[in-house]
Fold:
Amino acid sequence: MRRALGVVLAALLGAAPVAMAAAGAGDPERRAAESRKVVRAFMQALKKELKGAMEKGGPVRAIAVCRERAPAIAQRFSKETGWEVGRTSLRYRNPANAPDAWERRVLESFEARRRAGEPAARLEHYEVTPRDGRRVFRYMKAIPTGPVCLACHGERLAPEVARALDRHYPGDRARGFRVGDIRGAFTIVQPLD
Structure:
C-alpha cells in the first residue's frame, strides 16, 4: 500500500520542482497552484492513514498516526519536491510543529478572517518573503476542524484518549476545538535563491 502511494505521489509531484524552476519567483499564482496540489496530496495521504487507524483501533490508534506517520508523510513530500512541507498551529500538540513568526502572523490572520465569516476551509495565504537572508515563496492552507477531529482535539475526550495524549504530549495545547475552528495549517516553503 505504501509503495502504491509512493508511485502516485511521485507521478503527481514529479513535475513540480521542474515546473516551479521554470515558473521563477515572478509567478506566485503558479507556485500557489503547485503548493495546493502538494497540500491536497498530503491531506489525502494523512486522511487515509487516519481513517485506517480509526477503523483498526479508534482515536488512540489515530494518535500514533499523527505522532509518527504525519511527520514521515511531510518528510516524504519535502524530499520529493525539494520544498519544506509540514503542519503548524497556534495551538500545537507537538512542539516540533510550533509556528515561526511568519506562520504565527498568517495563522492569526486566518483566525481574524474566520471570525469575520470566512469559512476555515477556504483560508490560504502565500507570498514571496525573505527568510534567513534568502528569498522564499511561502504558502499556508488552513486545516478546519471536522467532526471526526473532535475525538482527539475536542472539548470532551474519552478517558483513554486523554491518557494517551497526556503520555505522548505533556504540553498539549491542541484540545478544546469545535467543528469549524482552525485546527492549524499546512505550510510550504519553496526556496527561490
